[in-house]
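Internal ticket #5521
Category: modeling
Description: The requester needs a full-assembly model to guide mutagenesis choices. All entity lines are attached below as received. Residue total reported by intake: 954.
Assigned to: D.W.
Attached entities:
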Amino acid sequence: MTSHDIAFVATGVLALVGGLLAITTRQVVHAALWLIVALLGVAGSVLVLGAELVSLVLVLVYVGAVVVLVLFALMVTRAPIGPDRQHAVGWVRRLAAGGAGAAVTALLLVVLVPLAGDWPGRQVRVAPIDSSAVASDLFGTWVWPFEAVSVLLLVALVAALAVSRVGAPAAYRRKP
Amino acid sequence: MNPQVLIFTMVFAAIAGLLLKRWHAAARAVAVGTSGFTAIAAADAMARATDQQTLGWLVPGLDLGPVSLPLDLGTSRATAAVAFAVALVAAAVQVYSTWYLRDDDRYPTFAATVSLFTAAMLLLVHSHDLVLTLIGWEVMGWCSYLLIGHWSRKPSARRAAYKAFLVTRVADIGFVLGTVGLIAGAGTSSLEGVIAAWGGAPTCDPLGQCTGPDSVLRAILLTLLVVGVLGKSAQVPFQDWLPDAMEGPTPASALIHAATMVAAGTVVLAALFPVFAQAESARWVLGVSTAITMLLAALLALGQSDLKRLLAWSTVSQVAIMLSALASAPAADGPDAGLFHLWSHALFKSLLFLSLGLLGVVAGGTAASLLRGVGTRSRLGRWTFLIGLLSLAGVPFLVGGLSKEHVLAEVYAGAMNRGPGLFVLCSLLATVVVTAAYSTRAFLVIAQTANDEEPAADAASTDAQPNRTDAVRRQGRGPASAVLVTLALLTLIGGLVLVLDLFTLHEASWIWLAVTVVLISVGCGLAFALGRSGDPGVRCAGRHGHRFDTGFGADTAYRALARAVVALARGVAFLDTEVIDGFVRGSAVAARVSGGRLDRAHRAERPRNGAWLVVAGLLALLALGVFAWR
Amino acid sequence: MIHALLPIALATGLVGLGVAGVLMRRNAILVLVGVELILSGALVLLVASGSLGGARYSVNSVLPLFVITIAAAETVVALAVIVAAFRARGRIDLDDPAPVPEPVPDPGQHSTNRWIVDTEPGQHSTNRWIVDTEPGQQSGVPTAGERP
């Protein structure tokens, strides 16, 4: 066990535990908060693997923007404080959902574990990735996908705006 | 004369009798004519009897691979004698019934059934093939049912017919199993083949390899066969159907339940005697059962309130004597002692039944209370009844006495060897005393006129025909009287059949003759002593008269057993419909319910169903990719 | 040096949790939480794949950035839809039955179907997407210049 191993395991456990609590807790706001914890764990593991830029962007965008947006949406839809009785789910469904998740995990493991070779798996070198290299890749080889993603963001913005106006009270509508 | 002729004549008579249902005169003619012809043919065959031979066939034999069924008939000396007895009694019964059932509207059916029965009995007697034996056995059982229930308008007659059929049928399970086992073991159903295959003793060489028949299996099969015989011959534990079978008309009782059907088991065991003699346990079963039965039945006969039932119990006792001769005879002696007793019993028992029928018609019923003193009114009835009773008691030199002497000698010889002989011997000696006692009682009942001290017996007569007029009673009695006289003569001189050397018998000893005479005198004296103040049977039975009439509660025991079996059957039926069928029905219900649920689930009427469907599809694709990739 | 099994385990674990989270929730917004988990699992695998398999193009960091961006865009649109649905129906329960299309209500009678926003008799629906047709008028989405 190298130090990288230990660090990865620590952050990985944090991510998994946070994810588990995020999907099972009955209080909706707590779910969003546990998602933050999980995403922080993911960011940590990505950092251990050497991709610093990715982990920082992950924290900025995911935790900073997406989760905040989720919390706003929860407030708009009048999420209750305390356990959400209105959206309670029985144990049968939890069990079935857990089973489906476990099945997906198992199938993926079947595919991916051979990549690591025989037990205990080969060791791979971890090298920090240079940000300048990433930048040159991004704006060099991948410039067209980059532009396309920008357009996607714009389209998403406009679509969100348009969708959100449907069904709004007349006061918000454009006056004839 | 071929046995085929005898059998086919009787079958023809049965069919013709059924067709002539509405013309009584023609039916009478056919019945009497065919049975007379058969009797003469059988007498001729007896006179010309030779040693055992298999001859002729009834239908072509069948070859079924591992088992072959030759379906042979055959004759031997003893067989010819028995066949003659059967044919004679059948002819006597047919002639007698033309008088007795003169005003019965179903007489042609009766005559046809009697003919069919005779055909089946002759088939059984002549068969050298176990399959034919089985056929004869079963047909006789069916005819017995029909004849007991002939007066089917009476519920008691119907019940008696059911009871007889069911009890003998239950015992027939053993008979069929034993027969099938013997055939399977021998690979052929012919008598010679079975005896050859099963009759030897197993020989084992020093290495432990044994050839020859498996003695354990043989014992089991023969025991099963013996169980079947016990049922048909009304021995313990199947004894209670025979007294109830007296619901049938007296001629039917005379033929079936005195002379022939109840003795069919004796014929079968005599045919299989070489095999039977080797099966120790089967002999013990038969010996114990017959020893118990002969004494029990004789005691019950003493206390009956109806004389026809007395004769029925007497039949049970005498058949037990026949079978005990078979059970205890040493292997070298052969079964002919039992067959000789069968022959003589056929003669004197049919005589007894037919003369009792006559007396019953004169008296208006067969209850002991009704028959008191009827002998004074009918001389023919009195004398024929007396001759029959003397033969039954075993008075020396009458045919019944002769056959009983030979049985006694045989049992004594068997008592010297291993086997049930000793037990049977003791029982037999006691039975001789009691037989003499009840024979004397029966005679005293019809001979003594009514006494005022006699308590009124209120047992119902089994053969009551209260609506018979005097004119009917006396009309056309000629043939019946002739029959009675013939049978009485044969009873007196029937011992001369030994001259014909048809039966190979043990030497009878003078010592046993003396013992027998002493025992008979004791029995008669007892009965006379009890009978000084009325019916000795009533004096003997005392307060327990009704218990004698119900056979010491055997019927109640049968019904309790039947209830238990029916409860078990209900339990099994419940298991079948609720438990086993429940699975079948449950699968249908499950299919319907799951179909409904799946139907609702796959309609994406709720958004969550859509989510589940997407994930399910994802899983399916993933699984397909992972497992089909190789 | 790091064992290659660890990132694989983390990635598949997150994906499994995410799928379970999608199926387990009745509140529409919390379904997005599960989706986020799935995407983050994919992210970890992408980042680790370079060391595992040796990428032809050094995409170890670029593709994850794209994934994050697209995830953000998708979340935004999804949340907008959810909010709009909430405003129209008052609930965002995934277990609600799908609305049964009701026949157009009589003028003079309020519709009882709450998915259809109430209209005053004689007045057209304020919902642009529900079109009332009057006899003689062509049906269709109102074009610019017509009454809303």
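Resolution: model delivered.
Comment from assignee: The radius of gyration of chain B is 30 Å.
Ticket closed.
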